[in-house]
Write a structure and sequence with these properties.
With 277 residues, this protein is of the alpha+beta class. Helix content is 50%, strand content 17%. Strand 6 and strand 7 form a beta hairpin. The longest helix has 31 residues.
C-alpha cells in the first residue's frame, strides 16, 4: 500500500473512531439482560430455583418472576418431579425457524434467479417472524422502469403484500387472528384491505388459486404476485413474489407470471421443505 493510501486509511479510521465516540451509549434493559442470562444458564442443564438465583446473584423472588414470564411464553418449562427448570419448546421452534431461513435462502436462490430471468420482474423472498414480514432477498428487475425495494421488515404490511398474504393464507386461523389483533390492518393505499372479513375471504382465494395478488395495495402503481413455500407437512416456511409496475401488468403478462410463480412454488416447496420432526 502506498504512503498516500496508508495516510487516507488512518484518516478514515480516525474519523470513524471519533464518530463512534460521539455516539451515546446504548441503554440496556435490566430485566431483559437478566432473562437472557437465565436462558443461557439453563442451556447448560436443568436447575432448581435456588441454584438459579445463586448463579445469577439475584434473589429468589426476582428469579421466580422471570421464570414465570418465560414459562408463560414457552421459553422455559418446569419438571413436575423435582420442580427444576429447563429450556422450553419455544427455543427449539426459534432454532428451527432460523435454520429454515438459512435453508430457504441457500436452496431457493437458483430457482428465484431463474424466475427473475424469465419474467424480467423484481423478485422478493420473505418470511414471517413474530407477525412481522421480513424480506430476506431481493432480485432486481431487468427493465429500466422497475420496482425498487430493500431488505428488512414490514411489520404491519403482511395483509397488504403478496408475500404476506401468501404466508397468512396457510397459517392456522388462530394465528391469523392473533397477527391481525397485534398488528392491525393498516391502510397503505386506497386499495388496501382493511376489513377483517374481506381479508379472510381474500386469503381463502389465495389458498384456492395457489397464489396471492397485491394490486396496488401496498404501493400505488405496483402489482405483485406471490406464492407460499411450504414444507413436507404443509406448514408455510416463507413466500416469494414478482413485483412489477402497473403499467406492465396487462392480462397476458399477469397470466404468464401467475403460471410461473405457481410452478416455482411447487419446485421450491419440494426443494426447501423440511421435516417437522
Amino acid at each position: 500500500m502506498h504512503n498516500a493510501d496508508q495516510l487516507q486509511v488512518k484518516k478514515t479510521t480516525a474519523v470513524i473512531e471519533l464518530e463512534n465516540a460521539k455516539q451515546p451509549a446504548r441503554r440496556k434493559i435490566q430485566s431483559v439482560e437478566r432473562a437472557l442470562s437465565l436462558l443461557e444458564l439453563l442451556a447448560d442443564g436443568e436447575l432448581r430455583l435456588n441454584a438459579i438465583a445463586k448463579a445469577l446473584n439475584l434473589n429468589a423472588s426476582t428469579c421466580h418472576h422471570l421464570l414465570g414470564t418465560l414459562m408463560a411464553h414457552g421459553y422455559v418449562a418446569q419438571s413436575a418431579q423435582d420442580r427444576s427448570y429447563f429450556l422450553g419448546n419455544k427455543i427449539n421452534e426459534l432454532s428451527r425457524s432460523r435454520m429454515r431461513q438459512f435453508n430457504i435462502v441457500e436452496v431457493a436462490m437458483n430457482d428465484l434467479r431463474a424466475l427473475n430471468e424469465r419474467t424480467g420482474e423484481t423478485v422478493h423472498l420473505a418470511v414471517m417472524q413474530g407477525g412481522e414480514l421480513v424480506t430476506l432477498a431481493v432480485l432486481d428487475s431487468h427493465h429500466a422502469v422497475r420496482v425498487v425495494s430493500a431488505l428488512g421488515g414490514k411489520s404491519n404490511a403482511a395483509h397488504a403484500t403478496a408475500t404476506g398474504k401468501a404466508i397468512l393464507a396457510w397459517l392456522p386461523d388462530t394465528e391469523i387472528e392473533r397477527i391481525i389483533e397485534r398488528r392491525g390492518l393498516m391502510r397503505f393505499t386506497n386499495k388496501t384491505i382493511v376489513d377483517r372479513l374481506e381479508l379472510l375471504e381474500n386469503l381463502r382465494h389465495v389458498r384456492r388459486n395457489g397464489f396471492a395478488i397485491d394490486n396496488e395495495e401496498y404501493q400505488p402503481g405496483v402489482v405483485c404476485i406471490g406464492a407460499a413455500i411450504r414444507d413436507h407437512a404443509g406448514a408455510v416456511i416463507g413466500a416469494f413474489s414478482c413485483s412489477m409496475p402497473s403499467m406492465r401488468a396487462g392480462k397476458e403478462h399477469l397470466n404468464t407470471v401467475e403460471s410461473d410463480v405457481k410452478a416455482t412454488a411447487r419446485i421450491l416447496s419440494d426443494a426447501v421443505g423440511v421435516e417437522t420432526e
